[in-house]
Amino acid sequence: MAATYKPVLWNAHKRIYDTILIAGIVAYLAIFIAVGYATADSANTSLEILTISALGACAFFMLHIVLAIGPLARLSPKFLPLLYNRRHLGVALFVVAASHAIFGTIWYHGYGVINPIVSLFVSNPRYDAIGAFPFESLGVIALVILFLMAATSHDFWLNNLSPAVWKTLHMLIYPAYGSVVLHVLLGAASGHGGSPLYVWAVAAGFAIIVGLHITAGIAQSGRDAATRRNLDGDWIDAGTVADIPEKRARRITTPSGHQIAIFKYDGKVAAISNVCAHQMGPLAEGCIKDGLVTCPWHGWQYDPATGRSPAPYTEKVETFAVRVKDGRVFVAAKPNPKGAAATPAAIG
Amino acid sequence: MGNIESTAAALNLVALYAAAGVIFAILFLLFGITRIDNGAKGAGLGFRLLILPGLIALWPLMLIRWLSGGQPHG
After folding, report:
1. B7 touches chain A (CB under 8 A)
2. Which residues of chain B register pLDDT less than 70?
């Protein structure tokens, strides 16, 4: 959320996150290569091949973490700090995956008479054979997707591609994951995987990712059902004021599916859309800081009375008319336009 | 052999696309970006280098946005 773009909006949290990230990658590669070198048949396993394998395995592991962070953060706010800088993890993932691809291409295709990249695609044309499938092409598909995601990770792209297009582009992480799973499994089938352990690791990782997404989906739908409110004319009874913690929000869902964040602060309540203009983060899980609704994901802020970001920022979200009667909050079922003022209701 | 030639031709097309993207990206960063996004006004070289790969990859989209006059953002 910057008036003038910066390459990275550094803070202490991001520095710690990135330090742990880089240290983790280095440690993973070192341990993988050391253990591989100590246990493998040295006559058939060179340091170069171990390095290529280590980079691939590291990228695959990082991809699992990227995919797990979203559902984990939906299951527990304890995981939100991992979500804040997920884009750094995504860029690092691309760098590791690209290193795996570059070293692999040089090692296996760089010493012939054909251009190595051409050789990568034509050396094995057996697309009809599972045991000898040219699994490299599946890795290329995933790498292209990871590149597009890393290259468009800056907020400039979110703003200029539009949030909907940007989100769709970044949902390609799932086809990328599918390609990588097949890349690893078919690579193992053709003798490049090294150990049957890879197959079991892929199966376990797949089960964890699918399980987390299903669990988070069930939990989310349960929360949606619990927050869904019925209409009372044009107004929705959103429950008692007393049950909303100070400077926090209650999320409700209208019969038409709008998610509303109702904030209580400084003796009044105000209602805005639950969906942050940045990356559609859940504003109701944020809090009021310095009089402003603050998104828990990346700290984007909005005036609760207008849905507008404070100057010089220009982001806007929808507001909802709100009133308080007999200690209960009532919210208009229909949203106001984005950035339209809606007077907060005094608690009285 | 035909397979090698067609693959090499396809890769040449990709290289051509990327070369066009590099030319577009330079022009866009020099003259276009501040017309479509107010957030880029005063932004430094680091930011411009950071979005360079994306501009090279997605240059047709950004060319359309530039030519359409672009609804200034921010």
Report:
1. yes
2. 1-2, 70-74
**How much is the pLDDT for A285?**
86
Indicate whether A193 and A254 sit together in one domain: no
What was the pLDDT predicted at B2? 55
* Residue A63 covered by a domain: yes
Domain holding A316, by residue range, is: 231-346
Distance, in angstroms, between A302 CA and closest chain B CA? 15
Sign of dihedral through CA atoms A163, A168, A173, A176? negative
- Cα A206 from Cα A179, distance rounded (Å): 12
Q: Which of B4, B44, B65 sits opposite A122 (nearest CB)?
A: B4
Chain A residue with CA closest to B46: the answer is: A7
The pairs formed by A124-130 with CB atoms below 8 angstroms and a separation of 24 or more are A125/B3, A130/A186, A130/A189
Please say which residue of A177, A202, A224 terminates a domain.
Answer: A224
pLDDT at residue number A193 = 59
Give the residue carrying structure tokens 């909005």: A302
Q: What residues of chain B lie within 8 A of the CB of A148, using their CB?
A: 54, 57-58
Cα separation, A295 vs A214, whole angstroms: 25
Partner A contacted by B51 (CB < 8 A): yes
How many distinct structural domains can be found in chain B? Answer: 1
Token reading at A270:
């105000």
Predicted pLDDT at A258: 84
Note the pLDDT tens digit of each residue in A216-247.
Answer: 999 988 877 777 776 667 889 999 999 999 99
Which domain range does residue B26 map to?
Answer: 2-67
Give pLDDT < 50 ranges for chain A. Answer: none
- Report the gap between the CA of A161 and the closest CA in chain B (Å): 8
Interface of A with B in 155-194 (CB under 8 A): 155-157, 159-161
Query: What one-character-per-residue DSSP string does B55-69 give?
Result: HHHSHHHHHHHHHT-
Please list every residue in chain A whose beta carbon sits closer than 8 Å to the beta carbon of residue B42: 4
For residue B1, the model assigns a pLDDT of 46
Do A240 and A320 have their domain in common? Answer: yes
Using the Cβ of B35 and the Cβ atoms of chain A, whether some distance falls under 8 Å is answered with: no
A47 touches B at CB < 8 Å? no
